[in-house]
Amino acid sequence: MKSVCEFVLLVTLCLTGSDSFAQRHVSWKFSSNKIGSDLYEVILSAIIEQPWHIYAQDNNEDMGMPTSIEFDESPIIKLVDRPKEIGKLRMTEIDGMQLRYYEDHVDFVQQVKLVNARKVTVKGSINYMACTEATCLPAFSRRFAITIGSDSIISSSLENTSSALPILTVGDLAPSFSASDTSGKIISLKEIVARNKLVLLDLWASWCVPCRTEVGKIRKFYPDYHNKGFEVLAFSVDTKPEAWKKAIVSDHLSWLQISDGKGMESSILKYYGVASLPRNFLLDNKGTIVAMDLNASELTSFLQEHLAGN
User: Fold this and answer.
1) Whole-model pTM?
2) Which of 148, 162, 175, 281 could form a disulfide with 17 if both were Cys (CB 3.0 to 4.6 A apart)?
3) How confident is the model at residue 24 (pLDDT cuts 50, 70, 90)?
């Protein structure tokens, strides 16, 4: 008879910062089944809060980071095949690319064979990205340790913590910064602001599906308002230059593009208190924030009201 051992660890932390947000929307349960004399199933179960989702292991990495399970190397365990997914797989097509993701719940099941051992602690990390239709949190990595091969399972999860982010609001002066464009030229926010009547500072990434959906809408009316003093300065949170540049070309983006290649560790995101994407800040020609987090429809209305007579 199959013996079943289970230890449940559900963590809900009320911390500030992007890491705690990921933990808050996706919690994890760890369990194990003994299915042979030296063979076990290690089960990592994601409990996903509505309306969030996480991506399948084989999702297109250009449109949302695939979930991955990485096990630490050990001479006394052998992984059998790759982790299986058990859950209701959902699929959506955006711009010819298929998204594969899970809502509510999914189990990642890895078979582990013990090699000359009766008891072992299996360690590793779960890497995932939590998104909704409107926003994506940065990729998050959670360490875990599960002891198998005994009558009970000892499980732990090592959490990352982060300090509170600053809060900007309408009326504040936008922090000034500079970063490189796709050719390596340094672009200064201060200079762009001084040359235009309104500047949209858009924070995005190639892996952020909501970001790319929204900029596709902005692209349609950008030329009309660009001639009236409107500019977009897009700061990418990508760490892979090739993915960033590919997305720019694929999405036919003609406005200014900059990045520092540091991802969510960029000091620029910390200056602006950014913990999720997309985020945007609309600035006047003095660098003052006049609106924040506008969708394409709201941005159009604002531009019509303030630039219509130009």
Assistant:
1) 0.72
2) 162
3) confident
